[in-house]
Amino acid sequence: MPISVCNGTTGVAPAERFAEEAVALRPLGGRAPFGQLRDLVRKVQADCAIDLDANSYSVAWRLIGESVQVVLLGGRVIVRHAGEVVADHALCRGRRQRIVERAHLAGVVGAAGPVRSAPVSEATARLDEALQAFFTRRLAEPYPYLILDARYERIREAGVIAGQAVVVAIGVDWEGRRQVLGVELANRESRSSWREFVTRLKRRGLAGVEFVVSDDHPGLRAAIREMLPEAVWQRCYMHFLRNALDYVPRKVDDDCLMELRWFYDRCDLAEVERDLAHGSASGRPNTETGGLGGNNIEETLSFYRLPLPHHKHISRLTLLERLNQEIKRCTLVVASSPTRRAVCGWFGRWPWRSTRTGSRRPLPQHGSSVRA
Question: What is the pTM of this model?
Answer without folding.
Answer: 0.60
